[in-house]
Amino acid sequence: MNSLFEYTDKLNAPYECFVFDTSVEQFPVQPHWHYFMEIIYMIEGTAIMNCDEQTFVVEQGDMILFLPHQIHSIYAVANISLKYYVLKFDMGQLSFATKGMGGEIHFPSLFRAAKGNPEAVLMFRAEEMKNFPAEQIFECGCMEMQRQDYGYRMMMKSYISTLLTFVLRCWRENGFDTDQSFAEISEDENIYYITEYIDGHIQEALKVEDLAKLCNMSYSYFAKTFRELYGQSCKKYIEFVRLCKAEDMLNFTNQDLSYISQETGFSDCSHFIKAFKEKHGVTPRKYRERKNAEKS
User: The whole model's pTM is what?
Assistant: First the structure.
């Protein structure tokens, strides 16, 4: 599976939502896999989509899921161009549990348990969703990611949670047991949930050695497995999450750089500035000035 990992994936933020137009983008989408989840909603055209050993014919108004680590590919029928919404996100960036009148939902556990389960179908036809505003959710998601206004990540979480809850309701009707949400996680599965822990403790001085212990793994085995699952080292992933949170604070608060570096878990302000400049090509101060100029 490693040779098919999508090293050039577009997920450079916890959530992404965009329109893919085959008349302007590189196509077809060859077989690949990635650590994040992907949901596609077809706007125009008919596509052949393969996922592991399944093949689907996806038409206008249909929606399909690609779960983390599933090998998938997309091809057009004949030479007709396609246009579809793409929503990508890291399951670890969702909250541990969403509480409501219907009980608690732990999305990462449920969607991990769904892989290979015949009751957890991956594709939803347009007629199945006639009373569900799927297209509007994708449209709003694209708008949020383009504007990146105050609270846009919270809005994206809301849209994703709505879509995933709809999927779970359909699965329950098919007989899928959602009570396994909080079933005990075996030791060899702990690493699949470590990104949740990282996100919830990002302001702390996280050490890879300590994360390995939480997963009941040796340092070397944890580091190797994490890289295989997420396509990058655990240390780089931690820095990625810190920089994402720092970007939001630069965009939507007036806090100074020292405060932001502390709140996002950087060892000091100098380390924060250096890491930020490596990613964006400008210092945090220049980044904030440019973003403020764009808003005015």
Answer: 0.80
